[in-house]
Amino acid sequence: MRLDRILSNLAHLNRQTVRQMIAGGRVRVDGNCCRDGRFEVRIFNRVELDDVLVQAGKPARYFMLHKPVGVVSATYHEAHRTVIDLLDEPAKDELHLAGRLDLNTSGLLLITNDGQWSRHVTNPGSRKAKVYLVETENDIAPEYIETFARGLYFAFEDLTTLPAKLEILAPRRARLSLHEGRYHQVKRMFGHFQNKVIGLHRTHIGSLELDPNLAPGQYRQLSAAEVASFAEPEIQG
Ligand code: URA
Prior knowledge:
This is Pseudouridine synthase. The protein is built from 6 helices and 15 strands. The chain has about 240 residues and is an alpha+beta fold. The chain has 3 domains: about 55 residues, RNA-binding S4 domain (Structural Genomics Hypothetical 15.5 Kd Protein In mrcA-pckA Intergenic Region, Chain A, Roll), CATH 3.10.290; about 80 residues, Alpha-Beta Plaits; about 80 residues, 2-Layer Sandwich (Alpha-Beta Plaits), CATH 3.30.70.1560. The structure holds uracil.
């Protein structure tokens, strides 16, 4: 909500008074003087008028989790344990997932209470590279590299996938970098060659790497720099 409206509502002041207070430099947002009444205040901002606290601001929370296989990427599920069940945190009902992984996929998953941030993370326009280690039932032929780089047609969505980079690490093991997240995308891409994915693990989203110190099921807070790494769109090769 706009700063001037917050002040009118919470401090019960009329608009004219609010305008004068803001223009007079009496209002601080997160400790800094704010003279813009149209500033969009978020629930995470601390707002003060002179020495009076108008809004305390909730802490914004950001976590990376090493999702294990067999745990569902949801906040609630009838049959399976969810990734939220793995967190030992207060007010878990305020948290949501910034992206998902299939039940039988492991790896990097982001969880937050900041909807604006998670939209940055998941926004297809940001083109963050998502990197997966893939294990397959059959050998991976070199022709996959060219096919994935060209893009594959997905009839259901009527679209061609964005260029993806495949590195073959072993006959049945590869690293795949995608810049989008279509439904079961990795499995469908290998499915094009009738090659079943038998192991899938996400290691990176953009420049953020799954912390190697986290065992499956463990999580940690993101650092301020890691949170900020999602602020700007980035395109990686
Ligand atoms: N692609 C898949 O097929 N599954 C995932 O969990 C992520 C990407």
